[in-house]
């Protein structure tokens, strides 16, 4: 079937057949706003009706800042002034904008300091209210989870401390093989409490990213984890961009995992490869059939393990935007590789 293909005479050269540039705002799902240098609205695209509920020309001639939420106004105005004062500037800002019914909705606006030929500034705005609502629900859920974990750990720790104290008194009074089993059970309960607290916090996004010496933080973690007669080898001098506290959580849990599975005299090596770093031990390793499940909460191949350590390590990696996997080490042990890491200068 033949079609008569024509080019709109109002289209710019190279804009494609039948595409009139002045028609694009009519079909954009984003709101296009044209402001003068004082922030007075010159034009609003039809999307304003969908996003804010105003008629298309209702805000023309108005000071746009009057429709910003009072708590956001100063910050958004400062961003716009930055755009007006420097043609090379591009500003992106999230804020609340008033709707026709008087309520506020979250939007994201982007503006460039490069004005139109007649000295106006184009602002591209999109609705992010659904995203913000999702973030608020997630934040509330995380806060409730952390509060729950803190309460539970506190309520568990008190009777546990009493039980540990009684066991110590009992061991001084009599000698029984059963006491060692009770002590082991208490130690596991204590580890579970600590891991539950850590697990309630690791899902949060990382903050305070900085240049971290991988070998130095690995050595610090090794000193703070019960490692029996194990040996740490640091085969790296690289610095990575990371949240130092969260990186310690990852390394401490991998070190603890190596000792639990590799034995008291295990050797653990921390090194780097292109795009990441690894933690490797010379223990028995992890079978290929078990590798898919070891990062799931509650999975442990030892009687004393909590099954949370590797899940915590994975969550820390995820929060950084890294990936983590288990493979074979050179000596047949387990090798945990963490990739997607950014190496930086000291």
From TrEMBL:
The keyword rRNA-binding does not apply. Keywords: Kinase, Phosphoprotein, Transferase, Two-component regulatory system. The keyword Phosphoprotein applies. Residues 151-338 form the Histidine kinase domain. It is an enzyme of class 2 (transferase). This is histidine kinase. InterPro entries: HATPase_C_sf, HATPase_dom, His_kinase_dom, HisK_dim/P_dom, HisK_dim/P_sf, PAS, PAS-like_dom_sf, PAS_fold_3. PROSITE patterns: HIS_KIN, PAS. Its EC number is 2.7.13.3. Pfam families: HATPase_c, HisKA, PAS_3. GO terms for molecular function: phosphorelay sensor kinase activity. Residues 32-87 form the PAS domain. It catalyses: ATP + protein L-histidine = ADP + protein N-phospho-L-histidine.
